[in-house]
Amino acid sequence: MARRRKLLKKLCRPRSRGPAAGGGGQDDRDLVPEPAPAKAGDEARVGQQGTLTYLWAPRGSRPAAVRDNRHASAYIFGAICPSRAAGAAIIMPWVSSEAMSIPLAEIGKQVGADAHAVLVCDGAGWHQTGERLTVPANLSLLRLPPYAPELNPIENVWEYLRGNQLSMRVWDRYEDIVDACCDAWNGFVGDVARVASITTRDWASVKT
Fold it and tell me: Measuring CA to CA, which residue among 84, 83, 91, 88 is closest to residue 108?
C-alpha cells in the first residue's frame, strides 16, 4: 500500500525546466488564457501488454514485433487546448473518480486567471459529477454523446503517441512505463505545430 501511495501520480514536466515551472510541457502558454475556450480531455492506458501498430516493411513480409505478457500499466490523464496548442497531463496507476479529480485540479491550475474552461470528455463512469469527483470552479465538463470518440480530438493524440512512441516496447517496471509516458507526452506538447495539426477541428470550435 505504501508503494501504491508513493506512485499515486506523476506530473508530466519537461526535465529541462526549473522546479517552479508549471505542468504539461509548454513553456509559457497557459492551457486556457481567455474566457470560455474549449479543450479536450481523456485518459489512455499504457502498459506491458503493449500496443501493436503499423510500420513500414517490404510488401509481402511479416515483420516481427515484441509482445510482453505481463500486466503492469499506467494511465495518462491529459488535456489539450487546440487553440493554444498547449496541454497538461498526469500519469496515474489506476482510473476512478478520485483519481480523475487529481488531473482536473492540475488542469484547473493551467487555466488563465480570468478564464473559465470547458473540458470535452466522454461519458466514462469516473467522468460523472458527484460526491467523489471534484471539479474545479474554473472548469466545466462537456460530455460527448455515447459511442462518439471521434468527436474528441485527444483520441487522435493517443493514436499518435501509441503509433510513434509507446508501441512495441518492453518495460520491466511500472516506473519505466511512467517515464516513457512522460517523455512521450512532453515531446508531443513541445511540438506546437504537431499539436495544432492533430487536435484542431474547424467544425468544433468556440465562437466568442
Answer: 88
Question: pLDDT per residue over 111-148, tens digit each?
Answer: 878 888 888 888 887 788 777 888 989 888 888 888 88
Question: pLDDT for 22-48, tens place per residue?
Answer: 344 454 455 555 444 556 778 888 988
What residues does each domain of the chain span? 2-199
Alpha-helical (H) ranges within 9-141 are 97-109
To the nearest 10 degrees (0 to 180), the angle between helices 154-164 and 192-199 is: 120
Cβ atoms of 109 and 138 closer than 8 Å:
no
CA 142 centroid distance within chain: 17
Rounded Cα distance, 199 and 173, in Å: 31
pTM higher than the cut 0.70: yes
Angle at 125 between CA 75 and CA 88, to 5 degrees: 40
3-state secondary structure of 57: coil
Q: Which fold has domain 2-199?
A: Nucleotidyltransferase; domain 5 (3.30.420)
Whether 155 contacts 44, CB under 8 Å: no
User: Exposed e or buried b for every residue in 181-205, given b needs 16+ CB within 10 A?
Assistant: bbebbbebbeeeeebeebbeeeeee
The C-alpha atoms of residue 87 and residue 78 are separated, in whole angstroms, by 7
pLDDT at 39: 65
Length of the chain measured in residues: 208
